[in-house]
Amino acid sequence: MSLAEKLFGSFSDRELKKINPLTKQVLALEPKYQAMSDPELQAQTPALKEKLAAGSTLDEILPDAFAVCREAAWRVLGMKHFPVQVTGGIALHRGDIAEMQTGEGKTLVATLPAYLNALTGEGVHIVTVNDYLAKRDSEWMGKLYRWLGLTVGLIVQGLDGDARRRAYNADITYGTNNEFGFDYLRDNMVTYKDNMVQRGHVYAIVDEVDSILIDEARTPLIISGRGEDSSSLYTQVDRFVRTLRKSVVVELEDKVETDEQADGDYVVDEKHKTCTLTAKGIKKAEEYFKIENLAAAENMTLAHHIDQAIKAYGVMQRDIDYVVKDGEVIIVDEFTGRLMIGRRYNEGLHQAIEAKEGVKIAAESKTLATITFQNYFRMYKKLAGMTGTAKTEATEFTEIYGLNIVTVPTNRPNIRKDYPDAVYKTVNGKYKAVIEQVMECHKNGQPVLVGTVSVEKSETLAKMLQRYTRDFNVLNAKNHEREAEIVAQAGKKGAITIATNMAGRGTDIMLGGNAEFMAKAQMRKEHFCENLLNPEKPEDADPSAVELLLTESDGHGETTDEKILAARKRFEELYAQYKPAIEAEADEVRKAGGLFIIGTERHESRRIDNQLRGRAGRQGDPGASRFYLSLEDDLMRLFGGDRVAGLMDTLKIDEDTPIENRMITNTLESAQKKLEGRNFEIRKNVLKYDDVMNQQREIIYGQRHKVLDGEDISAEMHKMLRENIDSSCAQFLAGDVKDEWDFGALRRHYQGWLTTDADFHYTVEDYDSLSREGIADLLYDRGMDVLNDKEQRYGAPLMRELERICLLKCVDRQWMDHIDNMDQLRQGIALRGYGQKDPVVEYRIEGFDMFDQMVDSIRESSIKMLLTIEVRKAGAAPKREQVAKPTGEGFVPGNGAPGAKGAPKGQPVRVIKIGRNDPCPCGSGLKWKKCTCAQYHPDGAGNTQE
Questions:
Q1: What are phi and psi of 391, to 5 degrees?
Q2: pLDDT at 893 over 50
Q3: 111 annotated ligand-binding residue
Q4: Which portions of the sequence form the region Disordered (predicted)?
Q5: What's the rounded Cα separation, in Å, for the pair 528 and 523?
Q6: Which is more confident, 941 or 172?
Q7: Taking the model in full, what pTM does it have?
C-alpha cells in the first residue's frame, strides 16, 4: 500500500464513502414502493422518463430508479438486491469496475444501472463472454425489464441484419464482445445506411471485464477475405525445418550474440517465446533453397515462412497451445482452457502448424476491416465492468480505459482458508503430494478441484491418479462437451475434478451438486423430450430438436409453445424432487470443509490464480485452497528458480519434502509482477500502434458515413477532380523550363479518360502561350463537360447515386490495401530502434505519409471511375456492392512488438468460411450458391460498367 493510500485511503475506499449514503437512500425507499400495486409500480418507468425529459439528471433519479427496479425484481424474479448489490450497481452507473466475488450475483447487480440508463432511450449494451450467458441473462433478466416497460434485445451468432437491428434498437441489448465488435466493423462496410445495425455507443456494462479488456486486448478483431494460397511453400519450408537442429536457452542475452549462445540451426528463447535462425541456420536455408542471400528483398516471403515454421516447431506445443482433432489444428485458450473452434493464428503461423502436423493447409486470409477491443470499447461515452479479480490490473484499467476499481464487500464474510504454497524439488514430488492431498479429501467426503495449466498436464496427473482411484473427472479442451455436467457435479461429496484453467467457466460450483443438472439428466434418462416431440416413434426424434427442448426446459424466455411449457413443468417437478437431497448433501460437504482447490502451477498472471481460488468459498461457504509447486515448473525455472534450488540443496531437502518459505513466495510474486508488467507494456504497445490506425479509421469511416447519410457529394467530387489535376500538373509540368515539361507522361497518365493521343503535342513556338494553370484548366473543363453530359443523360438523382457508388467503392478498395500496407510497415518498423529512433514515432510519421498517398489514390480512382462509368440501361438505378466478399471474422495476433518473432499464446484469428451449400448468412434461407444478396455475393459492378 502506498503512502497516499495509507493517508487518504484507496480510490475504492473513497468511492465507497460517497456510494454508501446513496445505497441507504435506495434502501430507505423500499416501503414506499412496496406499498404500490403492480400497475402503480409499472407506471414509474414513464414517470421517471418524464423527469429526465423535464431536465432531471440520471444521478438525481438514481435512488428512485434503483428502488423501483429492486422492488420489481422481487415481484417478478423472487430476488431482491442485497445492500452490497445496490452498492455495486451504483459503482457501475458511475462508470467504475465493480469487483465482486464469485457467487455474489453480478447478473442481478447489472439490472440496476441498466434500468436507470435505459430510461434515456439511447440504449445500454450488456457485454458477456459467450452466447450462452448472453442468452441466459437476456431471458432471465429480460422478464424484469419487460415488466417495467422496457424492451430487451439479444445479439448472438447467426442473426440476420433485421434481427440485429431490432436487438440494437431495444432499450437494453445483451451480446458478446465479439458480436458487438464485429457489428461495428460490418456497419462500416455496408453500402446502404439501411443495412447498418448499431445506433451508437453510449453505455456498456462489461461482465468478466478483465477477461475482455485485458486478456483479449492483444487480439484485434478482423473481418477477412480470401487471400492467396501458398500451401505448397508451407510444405516445402516444413520439410526444410525438419532438417534443422534446435537449441533452447532460458533467455537470449543479445540477438548479436545468438551464435555464441547456441550451437543449433535456430535458437528458442523460452522466456520471451521467440525463435531466431543462427548464422548456421541461415546458411543451410540458402543452400537448401538455392538462393544467395536469405535477407534479400526478393526472399522476404521465404524468410517469413521459415520464421513461422521454426515458431511452429520451437514455441508452439501440441496439447498445450493447440490440439489436433478431426484433421484440424484447434487453438486452446490459455486463459480458459477451452477449444477456440473456428479461430486461427494469423501471419501464416496456423498454416505452419498445419504443415508440421500433416493436416490440410488452409489458404491465407486478407484483412478487410479491423479494430482492437481497446479502441472499440473506448468509443463508449460511459463504460463500466464487473469481475471478481481486477485489483492486480488496476493500473492498466486506469491508464488505458480511465476505469477505476471499487471493491464491493461480500454479502457474507469469506471464510475460505488460503494455505501457503508448498514447493517441491521435482515435478514428480509435487504430483505425489497433490495425489496424497486429493485422496485425503476424497476419504473425508470433501470435494476437490485440481487446476492444471494445460491439457498435457491434466492428462499426466490423471494417469498418476488412476493408480489410486478411477472415481474422478477430467475437464480439458479435449472433452469440453461434458463441461456442464462435470462442473455441475464438482461440488458433490467426495468428488474429484481435474481441470485446465477454470477462468470464465460461467458456472458456479454448488456444494452438494446441482439440482438443475440432475433434473435434466433424469429427463434425458426417461427420454422425456423424445416422447414429447415424437410420441409414436421417440427414437426418430430430431436430436437437435431434443437438445433445444432440453435447453428451454429451464429457460426464462416467454413462450406459448406447448412442448416447451410441458418440458418446463417436468423440469420443475424433478428439480423440486432433487433439491432436498442436494441441500442435505451440501450440509455434509460444509462439515467436511467445503470445496478444496488445488493449484498445480502458478500462472503468469496472479489474477488467473485468484480466479481459481475464487471457485471455493462462494456466498460464505467454507472452502480451502493451496498451490503445489516445483522448481521444475516453467515460472520457477525461468524466473529465479536457481536461488530456491540453491536453498534446497543447502538444506539437503529431498523431492518428497515440501518447503514453505516466504522467500519462495516473494520470488514467485515478483516473477508474476514482472510478467504482468511486461504483458501490460506489450498491450500498451499494441494500443500505441492501433491508435495511429484508429485516427485514420475514424477519418475513413466518417467519409463513408457522409456518403451513406445521402449527403450531396457532387461539389466534393468536383473538388477531387480539380485537386487531382493540379497535383498531376505540378508533378509532370514541374519547374519553369517548359522544354523540360513531360507532356507525354501527363498525356499517358490521363489517357482514356481525359486525354487522347492527339493531346499535348507542342512546338517551341507554342511554349510562350502555355501555362501550367492553363493546361490544368483545360483538363478540368474537359472533366466537367463529361460530368455535365452524364447528368443531362442520366438525370440528377441517378448521377448523385453514381457519385456515391464510385466514392464508396474506391474508399473501400484503397482502405483494404492500406490496412495491409500498414501491417507490413509495422512488421519492419522495429528495426528502426537499432538506429536510436522510436519505432512508434516512425510508424506514426510514415503511416500518415502512406495515408496521404491513399487519400490521393482515392481521389484519383473515384473521379476516374465516375468519368468512365456508364449505366447499361438508361434510367436504371445502379446497385452498390461490396468490393470484397468477407470470408471470415476473427482475431489477429498483435504482440505489440512489430517485427518480433514471438508467438504469444491465445491470440488467434477466427475464420468462418461459407461453403457453396451452406445457408447464406444474410438470412434469406437459401443456400449460398442460390442466394443473390449483394452482401455476401460481391461479384462485379452489378448493372454498371467501368
A1: -55, -40
A2: no
A3: no
A4: 878-906
A5: 5
A6: 172
A7: 0.76
pLDDT at res. 944: 34
Residue 104 counted as an annotated binding residue: yes
For residue 35, the SS3 value is coil
Q: Residue 920's pLDDT is what? A: 58
Cα→Cα distances 594→167, 335, 616, 725, 908, Å: 42, 25, 7, 79, 38
Q: Which amino acid is at 194?
A: D
User: What is the side-by-side strand order in the sheet with 246-249?
Assistant: 246-249, 266-269, 274-277
How distant, in Å, are the alpha carbons of 373, 694, 844 from that of 822? 19, 12, 10
Pairing relationship of beta strands 221-226 and 595-599 according to DSSP bridges? unpaired
Q: Is 121 annotated as belonging to a binding site?
A: no
Write b or e for each residue in 101-128: b if 16 or more Cβ atoms lie within 10 A of its Cβ, otherwise e: bbbbbbbbbbbbbbbbbbbeeebbbbbb
Amino acid, single-letter form, for residue 432: K
pLDDT of residue 881: 64
Residue 103, annotated as binding a ligand: yes
List, as own/partner pairs, every contact residues 532-538 make where C-beta atoms lie below 8 angstroms and the sequence separation is at least 24, other chains included.
532/563, 532/566, 532/567, 533/563
Closest CA to 806 of 706, 709, 707, 711: 707
Distance CA 260, CA 270 (A): 17
Cα 387 to Cα 443: distance, rounded to the nearest angstrom = 34
Distance CA 89, CA 94 (A): 9
Three-state SS for 319-370 is CCCEEEECCEEEEECCCCCCEECCEECCCCHHHHHHHHHCCCCCCCEEEEEE
- DSSP 8-state assignment for residue 212: I
Cα–Cα distance, 611 to 175 (Å, whole number): 23
Strand (E) or helix (H) holding 276: strand 274-277
- Which domains are present in the chain? 11-220+374-407 (3.40.50.300), 228-363 (3.90.1440.10), 421-511+594-659 (3.40.50.300), 514-586 (no CATH), 686-898+921-945 (1.10.3060.10)
106 is in an annotated binding site: yes
Q: Can you read off the three cell numbers belonging to residue 179?
A: 458480436
Q: Please tell me whether 929 is known to bind a ligand.
A: no
User: What are the grid coordinates assigned to 155, written together?
Assistant: 445479439
Handedness of CA 640, 642, 648, 651 (dihedral sign): negative
The pLDDT, as a whole number, for residue 921 is 53
Handedness of CA 754, 760, 766, 770 (dihedral sign): positive
User: What are the φ/ψ torsions at residue 3 (nearest 5 degrees)?
Assistant: -60, -40
Q: Are the C-beta atoms of residues 81 and 109 closer than 8 Å to each other? A: yes
pLDDT band at 418 (very low <50, low <70, confident <90, very high): confident
Assign residue 379 a region: left if phi > 0, alpha if psi is -120 to 50, beta otherwise?
alpha
DSSP letter, residue 765: G
Query: Amino acid identity, residue 509?
Result: I
Over 50: is that where the pLDDT of 506 sits? yes
522 marked as part of a ligand binding site: no
Query: Which residues share a beta bridge with 176?
Result: 128
- What confidence tens digit (pLDDT) does each residue in 364-410 have? 777 788 888 888 999 999 999 998 877 778 888 888 888 888 888 88
User: At CA 185, angle to CA 181 and CA 191, rounded to 5?
Assistant: 150
pLDDT single digits (tens) 233-259: 888 999 999 998 888 776 655 444 545
CB atoms within 10 A of CB 836: 6
Q: Calculate the alpha carbon distances from 403 to 384, 399, 406, 536, 575 in Å.
A: 7, 8, 10, 59, 41
Q: Any residues with CB less than 8 A from the CB of 331 and at least 6 apart, and which?
A: 321, 322, 339, 340, 343, 344, 345, 906, 908
Q: What is the pLDDT of residues 441-477, one digit of tens each?
A: 998 889 999 988 877 888 888 888 888 888 888 877 6
